[in-house]
Write a structure and sequence with these properties.
The protein folds into three domains: 62 residues; 59 residues; 106 residues, no CATH class. It contains nine helices and no strands. The longest helix has 35 residues.
């Protein structure tokens, strides 16, 4: 996306990255399938009870020393690459959208670099806190599965993001900047309520709480966000501005 020259190329890069992710995710899932098949054919009484510990156990016990080192190095390299990418994206987006526009036009370049650096530090601290909180939760809830936990957390916000994206792509006359934020908040609140974290439904007097399964959170958030955003029309000046952008191919 950093190499894209206009919005059309950015959109193409985003769609292509989603397509390329499919075989990568399938490869990760296939590792679990192979481990299951292996231990079905070669039972091991010392295998850990927790499924998330099976792969590390396989690496340490079954792999030869050289391969063990390569796999461990690959896992650490992947983790560091993902972390650096996330930090860069979060810090850059936050700085460019919320801080840099408010700096004086004649602000020195060193000031802008300082903003980016401190934004990176800020999100590094936030990521550490999320990691510590997740580790604490998994330690106190050993029966919890990591995939439902991670995807369940994503489900609270990704539906709202997808909803606004669909409104922008599929319509030219619905949605406004201020009401889009309201639509996103409504989508998040709907998911929070039906997912019933911390007993929200009991707090409002529901005797038989309904808990939405995590795969449906994004769907619910998307539908609510789109429904609320579509209630408001786009100002005429914004329609004209977007039409000019499309005509220029940006």
């Amino acid at each position: 996306m950093l190499t894209a020259k206009n919005r059309r190329q950015s959109a193409f890069a985003t769609i292509l990255s989603g397509i390329v992710d499919l075989p990568l995710v399938s490869a990760f899932i296939f590792i679990g399938v192979l481990l299951f098949a292996y231990y079905q054919a070669h039972p091991d009484s010392g295998m850990p009870a927790e499924s998330r510990e099976v792969f590390p156990y396989f690496i340490m016990k079954e792999m030869p020393a050289g391969m063990r080192g390569l796999v461990t190095a690959g896992i650490l390299a992947t983790a560091m690459g993902s972390l650096s990418t996330a930090l860069n994206a979060l810090a850059t987006s936050f700085s460019r959208d919320f801080i840099l526009p408010h700096l004086p036009a004649d602000a020195p370049e060193s000031k802008r670099i300082s903003v980016l650096r401190w934004s990176t530090v800020l999100f590094a601290v936030l990521i550490i806190l999320v990691g510590v909180a997740t580790a604490w939760y998994m330690a106190h809830h050993p029966e919890a599965k990591i995939i439902p936990l991670v995807l369940g957390i994503l489900g609270f916000t990704f539906g709202s993001l997808l909803g606004i994206f669909l409104v922008a792509v599929l319509t030219k006359s619905r949605g406004r900047d201020d009401t889009n934020i309201l639509a996103m908040v409504c989508g998040i609140l709907a998911v929070l309520f039906l997912s019933n974290p911390m007993g929200i439904q009991q707090m409002v007097g529901m005797k038989e709480p309904f808990v939405l399964s995590f795969p449906w959170r994004i769907t619910l958030g998307t539908l609510v966000t789109v429904g609320v955003a579509m209630l408001f029309s786009t100002p005429q000046n914004k329609r004209t501005e977007m039409s000019n952008v499309v005509d220029r191919g940006e």
